[in-house]
Write a structure and sequence with these properties.
Distance between the termini: 46 Å
Oligomer: single chain
Order of helices and strands: HHHEEEHHHHEHHHH
Helix content: over 70%
Number of helices: 11
Structural class: mainly alpha
Number of strands: 4
Number of domains: 2
Length: 275
Amino acid sequence: MGVGAYACYKLTTIFPDLNIVVALALSGFFSASVGMAFGLPSLRIKGFYLAIATLAAQFFLVWLFQKWAWLYNYSASGAIQVPNIQMFGITVAGARASAMTQYYFVLCVVVAITFFTINITRGRIGRIWKSVRDMDIAAELVGINLMKAKLLAFFVSSYIVGIAGALFVFFWRGAAEAELFDIQLSFRVLFIAIIGGLGSVLGNFLGAMLIVALPVLIGWVPSAFGLPLSSSMIEHLNVMIIGMLIIGFLILEPHGLARLWGIIREKLIIWPFPH
């Protein structure tokens, strides 16, 4: 996410007349290139050790964002400030952009990326990824190139995450420092994937909705019964509940909310008949 955000910032400052959609698309390629570079260890390691290797890469990138002053245009604060960007005469990013304009812009981008991911996971490439995920040795025996499949997975996922990072800074935060892309943000994204369901497009949406709505529900439900909670208590309860949800899903339903929704949907289709 950090690579995509900084790449989009440099593109919009070096080329002020560049369309923001093009800048977003190009920033994804920078992120994808970095993702492929750090994805090379996946050819030799997997599982827990691969997760540790990718987390180690994050520490290097955060350090790079802090020390390479060219990335933030030698700003004294070390932060990047989103400039005012117009599209068809409407300010879509920056301090002058309205919240509704930014919302609808992000919504359009999310719909386009979702359409792309659904189609790619249902096609030939998606079937290759699923076979490698389930049993890489069997996939290699039937003629699948593991190196190409794994690097392509890193490329596509890093491309999408890079665009997400650019949207995160340009259409929500407005400014960012290197510390914004610390380990806590990575864990937040990981929690969304675990709770929602690994390998599921729908699961990512369900996990994100739960993570975002949970603090609101924690604060609203006690207040409705006349027991208001402080902001610090809400934060502590939020962390505790997320931790319990992760443990529960890993033990009871590893496929997350996406699988639960699938079961409910199947039950509703055959209801009220038992078979």
